[in-house]
Amino acid sequence: MATEKKDIRAYSLIELQDFFVAKGDKAFRGKQVYQWLWNKGIHQFDGMTNLSKETRAFLEEHFTINHIAVDQQQRSSDGTIKNAVKLFDGRVVESVLIPVKDRTTACVSSQVGCSLDCKFCATAKLARMRNLNPDEIFDQVVAIDQQSKAYFNRPLSNIVFMGMGEPLMNYKNVLSAIDKITAPSGLGMSPRRITLSTSGLPKLIKKMADDEVQFNLAVSLHTAIQATREQIMPFAEKFPLEDLLASLKYWFEKTGKRVTYEYVVWKGINDNIEHIRALVNFCRQVPSKVNLIEYNAIGDDDFKQADPVIIDQYIEYLTAAHITATIRRSRGKDIDAACGQLANKNQENT
């Protein structure tokens, strides 16, 4: 009976070196393979040209590389590119390349579906099927970097974990992927150009701080009133705002990095002075800035974009309190690639 091949990217550098030594080869052979996998993003053993044909054939016989494939690509009128990314087991997630004048940003997914239940997000309507492996997250970045070079003649400059899934519910794999992306032996990208966005899981935010991560933190807040937060993000009942705030204070004390709050204003939900004042007070508790995000409809009449005058009022109050606030215009709305819209509409995902 044939033994199922193991994905070679599940091995660490030390494990690869030990493997080659055990088979009578040199340890540096493992380092060569590791560089092909993580520094150059090679998906075929035949592409490892500094290895002998015999070594490549041996690797082909005993291992596999479970890489992703961009199964479908859509381009927005504003230049945004949405990818339907097919995984080795046939599951599909979506990733997005977002170009602006001076940079290109990769928005990557961390789960197939999502573990949480935010009512305003299309991804949350999908059941969580599984976590992505570190290499599947890594491959999304490599693919978007290639697209950025091909379509915009410049390499990828930023990464945001704002695609499908809650990154902190896939903690180990997400941090492992970021290690590969930032390591000199990997893609060598600065962690300062990476932002992890979470819906707000206090214990795991504290764990990140204890793990001394170097990337940036964004929190999908949307309201600083607990009752409203539970209404639109039911999971928040188990993670009250006071616990979230305590974890963010801890984050700043340990890392020195201010927090970015992502905040959508909806008509009839958080478009009043009570919510504005609550947000200002929340922001005053820990160094932070606010991104007011344009709402992107997902076919739910309970959520409608607030009137522009309310957005201006948010900006006015935040600015008066010396809190940095910006309005983030959505991109890729015409192809359902904007924030909160990723839901595999063009793929059967069962």
Can you describe what's shown?
By secondary structure, the chain is an alpha/beta fold. It has 2 domains: about 60 residues, DNA polymerase, domain 1 (Orthogonal Bundle); about 270 residues, Aldolase class I (TIM Barrel), CATH 3.20.20.70. It is built from 10 helices and 14 strands. The protein has a 10-stranded mixed β-sheet, with helices on one face. It has a two-stranded parallel sheet with strand order 1-2. Helix 1 crosses helix 2 and helix 6 runs parallel beside helix 8. It is elongated and about 70 Å long.
Please describe the structure with a list of short key phrases separated by commas or semicolons.
350 residues; alpha/beta; DNA polymerase, domain 1; TIM Barrel; 10-stranded mixed sheet; two-stranded parallel sheet; 14 strands; 34% helix; elongated; disordered C terminus
